[in-house]
What we know:
- This protein is mainly α.
- The chain has one domain (3-187).
- It contains eight helices and no strands.
- The protein starts with a helix and ends in an 18-residue tail after the last helix.
Amino acid sequence: MTPEQLKAAWTLEAKHVAGKLELAEEATGKLVKAYTDAQTAYGEAVNKKREEMRAEGGDREGARGAIRTAFEEIRKSERDKFAAALAAFLTEEQAKKAVDQLGGFNNSLDRMVHVLAGFKLEDKQAKAFDLVFAYSLEQAKLWTPGAGEQQDFAALREKMTALKTKLDTDLAQILSNEQLETWKQATTFRGRQAGGGGQGARREE
């Protein structure tokens, strides 16, 4: 995805969550900005860390666990900063719900929202977004924090495939056959990615 496409997806994601929270226009605008800022900061931090670790070199297999641990730490740090920013204009409950929905910095969610937005679903879009947000949250639960290379990736892939199959089945009730085929081609999981996230970066999810 291009930086422009990512920012458009982030805006849609933030506005969707704002709608769920029944935020006023001003608060919605602030949420969009806070989320875009958080995503950008996360991406920049991940890219910087990746370049630092590449420069250091070392054992490739051993580096994978270290990379994942480093990215988990970055994600937590930026998530905490995002929560602090939201506390300035949202209630504690609203901020918690927003962070739960948006604080994963999940690139698969960005791509899915981008693809769905292209279908111009109009009144069906909110329901489709609900499904991909729920999928994103369940997907995030599959990653064991701190597991690094100790995680069983074969079992993880199987569970992720099952989740994606369910999502596709649910979306089949909303999308046309042609849209569903396009959706599957654009969002099929193609294997592990080398971590990271944010604008211009690939992520583990």
